[in-house]
Write a structure and sequence with these properties.
Elements lengths: L2 E6 L27 H14 L6 E4 L3 H11 L6 E3 L19 H7 L21 H14 L5 E6 L1 H12 L10 E6 L7 E8 L14
Parallel strand pairs: 1-4, 2-3, 2-4
Antiparallel strand pairs: 1-5, 5-6
Helix pairs in contact: 1-2, 4-5
Length: 212
């Protein structure tokens, strides 16, 4: 039975440090890396996924999602499939969005799968991201028809759009939380939410103020 584990990235540096670009002058304003607590939250995520056999993992190309996915994997051999279809809603991004090109991402994050062909190489103009996220998710599910555990690491609005795509309800959730969707019947393409914005994997200090 297929399961989709949807993870919103952990805490960003700009959540706690308004002057963060002084320390990261080469980063665009929409591409904050994780904070120290964010990386600690990712270590909690790593422990959660330690005994789960991940079939495929997809991540938005922004640093905060790539860091979350990379730390989450720990010593697993999975490669990260970088998918611009899961980037943040465009009105919250620079124009064009300020993530690194794929070759630079691969230099920063060695687990990048350079053979992966994304659903979206660039994102078209949009009023919201639901149509883009739904198309991305459906294409991935078509490709991963025999994959049991699929992990998606994305942002607040795209994760809420995944909820709407799979359940019909837009659901904004907190950072570093895990939502689990299970296929109701093998091969049906119909998923039910069996865990909504789970946070029990987070330590006490990492479980508060998740900005959901």
């Amino acid at each position: 039975m297929r399961r989709i584990y949807v993870v919103r990235h952990a805490e960003r540096e700009d959540n706690v440090n308004s002057k963060w670009r002084r320390d990261y002058p080469e980063f665009k304003s929409d591409n904050s890396p994780l904070s120290k607590r964010g990386r600690s939250q990712c270590d909690d995520l790593r422990k959660y996924f330690e005994n789960i056999e991940i079939g495929s993992i997809y991540a938005s190309p922004f640093d905060r999602t790539m860091e979350t996915a990379s730390i989450l994997l720990g010593n697993k051999e999975n490669k990260i499939k970088v998918e611009p279809g899961f980037i943040e809603i465009l009105y919250l991004c620079e124009d064009p969005p300020g993530y690194w090109p794929i070759d630079q991402l691969a230099d920063k994050f060695p687990k990048v799968d350079l053979s992966y062909k994304p659903v979206f190489k660039t994102c078209p103009p949009e009023d919201d991201c639901l149509e883009r996220v739904d198309k991305t998710l459906r294409k991935i599910l078509d490709r991963e028809e025999d994959t049991e555990n699929i992990v998606v690491v994305s942002h607040g609005s795209p994760v809420a759009s995944i909820y709407e795509s799979l359940t019909g309800r837009y659901q904004y959730i907190g950072q570093a939380t895990i939502s689990i969707f299970e296929e109701a019947r093998a091969g049906s393409g119909h998923f039910v939410c069996i865990q909504r914005a789970g946070r029990d994997h987070l330590s006490a200090e990492n479980r508060v103020n998740l900005r959901g």
